[in-house]
Amino acid sequence: MKPIRVPDLAPEQLIELEELYRSTRSVRLRTRAQMVLLSAERGLTAREIAEIVRSSEETVRRWLKRYLAEGVEGLSDAPQPGAPRKVTEEYRERLVQAVRRRPRSLGLPFSLWTLRRLADYMAEQTGIRVEYETVRVHLKAVGIVLSRPQHTITSPDPEYALKKGRSKRPATLSGRETTSTTPTSSTSVGCRL
């Protein structure tokens, strides 16, 4: 296989690569710039560069070829296929504003937000329909986590608290002991309750 080497670069090209190497936050882009710099400045082969950057020789060859064909722009990742994102920055801002208000203050017939209710409300307000999981992800990104609603049961009966307390005790059959033939462990066959 013919070795690939980057020829001597003009000072502007070296400065551009150095700037990219030092300023980018993308580790992948920094490593690619390092590959080109090692080849151009030190004259290293793809195999030697692969050992330094802990990558495969084929990967180093691919990025050197792309740099030679496209320049610095060729070191960036190609655009990923797929549909464009539905959620805009404005949608995120409105989502955060909505979740920080009580649903009743917005004229809705419930008092707590759920992810599904929030997704439905945002679809009505913005015309952008997303899954409730998408809503959860965007809320989590800004540090908001919706907890599950806690339902409490109340009654206008003045003796409700007393009756509710009775229902929490285990039921007995008029104070008599009962026996069960259902095994509760591997050693016992019958058990007294």
What does it look like?
48% of the residues lie in helices and 2% in strands. The relative contact order is 0.07. The chain is mostly helical and 193 residues long. Among the domains are: 11-75; 89-141. Helix 2 packs across helix 3 (46-53), helix 3 (46-53) crosses helix 4 and helix 6 (115-126) packs across helix 7. It has a two-stranded antiparallel ribbon with strand order 1-2. It has eight helices and two strands.
Question: In a nutshell, what does this entry contain?
Answer:
This protein is an all-alpha fold and 193 residues long. The protein is built from eight helices and two strands.
Key descriptive features of the protein:
193 residues, mainly alpha, two-stranded antiparallel sheet, 8 helices, 2 strands
Q: Can you count the beta strands?
A: 2
Widest sheet: strand ordering: 1-2
Poorly predicted ranges: none
Rounded mean pLDDT is: 84
Share of helical residues:
40-55%
Structural class call reads: mainly alpha
Largest sheet: 2 strands, antiparallel
Per DSSP, what share of the residues sits in E-state strands of 2 or more residues? under 5%
Strand and helix map with partners:
Layout: H1 11-23, H2 27-42, H3 46-53, H4 57-70, H5 89-99, H6 115-126, H7 132-141, H8 160-167, E1 179-180, E2 191-192
Antiparallel strand pairs: 1-2
Helix pairs in contact: 1-2, 2-3, 2-4, 3-4, 6-7
